[in-house]
């Protein structure tokens, strides 16, 4: 009976840990220069890859902004609803090999994301290799 209880506890803990360590969900983005909240991005899985789209803009004067300098099909699109994280694949504890778009500058960067804590997501955009870039920390919206 004691072994059964320990086994069930271990299984439950493993399942809860796996669920808690999922990057999907809604995340509040923070401007790394001002420290102010900018938007809510919903991170989701599609065809085994990770994507993220802007679902809410928190800055009143930017609610109707468009992506003026974005490349390709994203040029001129409203930032609200724009997919800014594209095609990340799971690699151990992080997701990488995709891109992230900075809608304010229109620049597209290589990207990786990983959970720092259950409710804190590390988002790194870079050019070339990951030492040349910048990191933001997003916070899970409950």
TrEMBL record:
What keywords sit in the KW lines?
A: Signal
Q: Which Gene3D superfamilies match?
A: 2.40.128.520
- Would the keyword Cytoplasm turn up in this protein's UniProt record? no
The residues the entry assigns to the signal sequence are: 1-20
- Record-linked InterPro entries: DUF2147
List, for all copies, the residue spans of the domain called DUF2147: 25-140
Name assigned to this protein = DUF2147 domain-containing protein
């Amino acid at each position: 009976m004691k072994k059964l209880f320990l086994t069930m506890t271990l299984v439950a803990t493993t399942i809860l840990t796996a669920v808690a360590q999922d990057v999907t969900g809604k995340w509040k983005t923070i401007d790394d220069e001002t420290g102010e909240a900018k938007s809510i991005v919903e991170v989701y899985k599609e065809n085994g890859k990770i994507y993220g789209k802007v679902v809410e803009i928190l800055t009143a004067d930017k609610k109707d902004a468009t992506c003026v300098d974005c490349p390709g099909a994203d040029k001129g699109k409203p930032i609200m609803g724009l997919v800014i994280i594209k095609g990340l694949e799971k690699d151990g504890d992080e997701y990488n090999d995709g891109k992230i778009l900075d809608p304010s500058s229109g620049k597209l960067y290589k990207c990786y994301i990983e959970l720092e804590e259950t409710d804190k997501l590390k988002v790194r955009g870079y050019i070339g290799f990951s030492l040349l870039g910048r990191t933001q920390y997003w916070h899970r919206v409950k």
